[in-house]
Amino acid sequence: MTTRIYLDHAASAPLRPEAVEALDRTAALLNPAGQYASGRAASRIVEDAREQIGALLGADRAEVLFTGSGTEADNIAVQGLAFGALRAHGARRIHSSPVEHPAVGEAVDWLCDPAGLPVPEPLFDRVPLTVDATGRPRPVDGPLSVSDDALVTAMWVNNETGNITDLAGVIGPAVAADVPTHVDAVQAVGHLPVDFRTLGVSTLAASAHKFGGPKSVGLLLARRDAAVQSPVRGGGQERRLRSGTVNPQGAAAAAAALQAAVDEMDAEHARLAGYQARLLAVARSIPDAVVYTDPVADGQGASGASDVPGALPSHVHMSFPGAEGDSLIMLLDAAGVDASTGSACSAGVNRASHVLTAMGVEVHTARGALRLTTGPATTDGDIDRICALLPGVVDQARAAGTAY
């Protein structure tokens, strides 16, 4: 039987050997909050992981908080910063773009239209950040002030297209105005250099399983002076911003995976950029194909060597008008390839990506989307095989037609 090809690293990356070793080494650890010897041992592991992650991401140890997922980290940050700004200054405007991941987008939706809550009117006003044709958010249009603006939030790397946001341009003005800022860096951490101090943002969210760590381990970087009124209540274990017993095994494995990802970042960037170029060439050879991922600029390493933001080399996002995304991924699945459309399905119904429609892509075209994302598990043979398969798969999907 032919080995399956995994091309959905943006959704979840395979567990790194370093993470497996850390999980095995810490398997016997118990409650890190315990005031007894075994508790102190578990706590040391957590604090060592916190310090290691902080050093890798340019943050102080106290600024590194463990959560249950990247989604939870985003929600704590978005809701907490907004409520903190409302309480401190009466600020009510939230600036976010229509291409945000649902972890941010739906949190903003709830704040600006809290359906089911006994409040006479929304607590916050949404001010949409416009996006350009590549799906990158544009800066806030107009001046910002702490008395009016509760939050500016933007994703660093788009989870569908892989395109990288110009954070300095989008977030920078808010940082300069002391307006609370959040960055969804779930797709960036472990793939791009991160220096939390230099960014100057209030909070930043990440997820361990995106860079080869375990699932259900999120990271929230929160500046010491960030005014976060956390929606999570309980024991207050993580600076009173995230309650719940910290997972020492997950913390250790996340730190080990992040160290490995950072150590190989430049080499992996170059390797995957070669794969991206091959995949893009095949996609563009298919009639009427539309490509959304900006290719990595020649000579551009992980640290960036171009004025063009570019994209992560791991992503290739495209559409094939006349085909259904569901048909594409089912045909690839039957051929032994794991891939995705890039957008979430609801009740098994393929819907046009909110990212693509925000970019101005017609629904008919957006419904034929396919996302291929590579990573450490990808081999030259995998790319040979998908390059050979893709044109025929698109022909079959187009022959099957669209749902309407």
TrEMBL record:
<dbReference type="GO" id="GO:0051536">
    <property type="term" value="F:iron-sulfur cluster binding"/>
</dbReference>
<keyword id="KW-0808">Transferase</keyword>
<protein>
    <submittedName>
        <fullName>Cysteine desulfurase</fullName>
    </submittedName>
</protein>
<comment type="similarity">
    <text>Belongs to the class-V pyridoxal-phosphate-dependent aminotransferase family. NifS/IscS subfamily.</text>
</comment>
<dbReference type="Pfam" id="PF00266">
    <property type="entry name" value="Aminotran_5"/>
</dbReference>
<dbReference type="InterPro" id="IPR015422">
    <property type="entry name" value="PyrdxlP-dep_Trfase_small"/>
</dbReference>
<keyword id="KW-0408">Iron</keyword>
<dbReference type="InterPro" id="IPR016454">
    <property type="entry name" value="Cysteine_dSase"/>
</dbReference>
<dbReference type="GO" id="GO:0046872">
    <property type="term" value="F:metal ion binding"/>
</dbReference>
<keyword id="KW-0479">Metal-binding</keyword>
<dbReference type="InterPro" id="IPR015421">
    <property type="entry name" value="PyrdxlP-dep_Trfase_major"/>
</dbReference>
<dbReference type="InterPro" id="IPR000192">
    <property type="entry name" value="Aminotrans_V_dom"/>
</dbReference>
<keyword id="KW-0663">Pyridoxal phosphate</keyword>
<keyword id="KW-0411">Iron-sulfur</keyword>
<dbReference type="GO" id="GO:0031071">
    <property type="term" value="F:cysteine desulfurase activity"/>
</dbReference>
<dbReference type="InterPro" id="IPR015424">
    <property type="entry name" value="PyrdxlP-dep_Trfase"/>
</dbReference>
<feature type="domain" description="Aminotransferase class V">
    <location>
        <begin position="5"/>
        <end position="385"/>
    </location>
</feature>
